[in-house]
Amino acid sequence: MIYIYCLSYLVLIIHSGNEALIDRIILEELSNPKIPRRRFLDLFLSGTGFAVLGSLLYPLLRYITPMEQEEAAVSSVSLGAADEFPVNSGRVFRFGSQPGIIIRGRDGKFRAFYATCTHLSCIVQYDDREGVIWCACHNGRYDLNGINISGPPPRPLPPLKVNINPDSGQIMVSRPEASA
Ligand code: FES
């Protein structure tokens, strides 16, 4: 019986996150004078153990079942002030559930792409020595238009659109179709 209580406790925490309510239910059970002291102790210790287990499992479950719907709906992200990006630099950022990369080339222009390599899906980075987008996994290279120029990548990187607000100087990156 004790395990049913504890399992219920764990499941309710994971699904509702309302620990206060669950604690109240357990306390009501404990205040029942028919419950012997040994059982009280068992319940308390097991409940604590399961609560700890639940607090460890909850983030894991949220990670395993990400909010795909929410993330899939992302059509643009703000990346802050344009002048915070040095010339000849790149930064990987999160675009919904996917990585993106924004590059400020040696010419000062901004470009952005999905950062998943078209070979075997490693995340690409900017190589400021060569001025190319580079995939460290198998030495794949893309130029600053996202075109695959050497190594195993079979296709270009899909582009993202970069807009800089002329008043605020803030960079907004969006899907090309979202800003058309
Ligand atoms: S995963 Fe990028 S080159 Fe292989």
What keyword list fits this structure?
2 domains; 10 strands; four-stranded antiparallel β-sheet; 36% helix; 180 residues; alpha+beta; six-stranded antiparallel β-sheet; elongated; binds FE2/S2 (inorganic) cluster; Rieske Iron-sulfur Protein
Q: How would you concisely characterize the structure shown here?
A:
With 180 residues, this protein is α+β, with helices and mostly antiparallel strands. The protein is built from 5 helices and 10 strands. The protein has 2 domains: 2-64, no CATH class; 72-179, Rieske Iron-sulfur Protein, CATH 2.102.10.10.
CATH topology of the largest domain: Rieske Iron-sulfur Protein
Q: What is the domain total for the residues?
A: 2
| Parts with pLDDT < 50 across at least 5 consecutive residues | 2-8, 10-17
Our measurement of the CA-to-CA distance between the termini, rounded to an integer number of angstroms, reads 61 Å
Mean pLDDT, as a whole number? 80
Highest CATH level, the class of the largest domain: Mainly Beta
Tell me the strand percentage band: 25-35%
Residues in helices, as a percent range:
25-40%
Give a description of the structure:
- A hairpin with a 5-residue loop joins strand 3 and strand 4.
- 19% of the residues are buried.
- The longest helix has 28 residues, at 37-64.
- The chain has two domains: 2-64, no CATH class; 72-179, Rieske Iron-sulfur Protein (3-layer Sandwich), CATH 2.102.10.
- The chain is 36% helix and 27% strand.
- The model is unreliable at 2-8 and 10-17 (pLDDT under 50).
- The chain is built from five helices and ten strands, in the order ααααββββββββββα.
- The strands form two sheets. A six-stranded antiparallel beta sheet has the order 1-10-9-4-3-2. Strands 5-6-7-8 form a four-stranded antiparallel beta sheet, with no helix packed on it.
- It is an alpha+beta fold.
- It has helices spanning 2-16, 19-30, 37-64, 68-72, 176-179, and strands at residues 76-81, 89-95, 98-104, 110-114, 125-127, 132-135, 140-142, 148-150, 159-164, 170-174.
- Helix 1 packs parallel to helix 3.
- The chain binds FE2/S2 (inorganic) cluster.
- Residues 117, 119-120, 122, 135, 137-138, 140, 151-153 line the site of FE2/S2 (inorganic) cluster (FES).
- The site of FE2/S2 (inorganic) cluster has 11 residues, from loops.
